[in-house]
Fold these 2 entries.
Entry 1:
Amino acid sequence: GEDVEQSLFLSVREGDSSVINCTYTDSSSTYLYWYKQEPGAGLQLLTYIFSNMDMKQDQRLTVLLNKKDKHLSLRIADTQTGDSAIYFCAEPYTGRRALTFGSGTRLQVQP
Amino acid sequence: EAGVAQSPRYKIIEKRQSVAFWCNPISGHATLYWYQQILGQGPKLLIQFQNNGVVDDSQLPKDRFSAERLKGVDSTLKIQPAKLEDSAVYLCASSPRARTGMNTEAFFGQGTRLTVV
């Protein structure tokens, strides 16, 4: 994967659902990842999905994977102000273990 | 379990000076990565080590950047001489050893913010 694309910005109201979208390039990617970055901090792994799955749910997080369209989404239910951060989608570089990241989606949660 | 440690947290230098960053990965993690994150962008891989050997340094600007991982644990990344466009956050990450195709989850440090003036 060399070009992972994400929309730059999303604003939602507290309590609403947020959906962050990503398109990736390498159809052979075995795992796809979502990372969260808060201001001044490193990247924190939120969740990941194995490529043979269509959906993975983890508490307020739902990951949907459409392999045909190479589309990945992250849904955050009941979004809180503490969810305000930049969210990165990532896939392994083709044939390698290192990750390639999108440019990130800045999520702003309005009280 | 202690996380990935990096130092310093912040560094300001003048262009053409040199700078070094240090990383201590999670204990037992065989793979170590250095990423560069320019403001407003996602992290980009600079170099990947497996134990003390370089696996991938294809995106490392070798005329000015160097990195080493002596004894397969700590690592240092050096820039000499620095340019204005090197201003970025330098992130270190580590992964446990895994077979190809297995989960490549990486754990990140807080990063070093470099400003070149």
Entry 2:
Amino acid sequence: AQSVTQLGSHVSVSEGALVLLRCNYSSSVPPYLFWYVQYPNQGLQLLLKYTTGATLVKGINGFEAEFKKSETSFHLTKPSAHMSDAAEYFCAVKFQTGANNLFFGTGTRLTVIP
Amino acid sequence: NAGVTQTPKFRVLKTGQSMTLLCAQDMNHEYMYWYRQDPGMGLRLIHYSVGEGTTAKGEVPDGYNVSRLKKQNFLLGLESAAPSQTSVYFCASSPGTGSYHYGYTFGSGTRLTVV
């Protein structure tokens, strides 16, 4: 079955530390992959996406993610956390077969400790 | 450039009441979607539309109806609200299908409480 999984519903990091948010998918065909960020009481904003081409993609606010087909993963990273990064992050997947819509993970809430 | 606009932003309903949530986009997008967001469950697709006059069921369609009479508008209706429909509702739009999927543009959400 096709699915998307985010490991860790809550992640805490110190300001200046590495941010690593995990996302894995289950699909026989590599899907299109997205990361969205949601700040409190706001809608979701696209951080970055992978469709084809280079497997390391850079997004806004210093975030990047690497598509690893062998690990069926698309983890989100940022070298140095900033207080303004505190938000909820959603991994989303568009499977290349089946319904033409995004499937979202359950989200990871990032807390940045000063 | 408004993007995706949702109205209302907040609403409290009594059980059994009906209401309509309006979503409007000004980007000439073909596809539109309604999601609900609940704690620990991420976003779940309620209904979607791939063009004017078309609608389709998503993952959790029960208790909701939709209409897309105009390309720019996508309405979500609750005929008889239940407490289980207390949620934050998001509308989104996208250009459509093709070799690349450009991701969605989201509205700011409607927080609905059913008492």
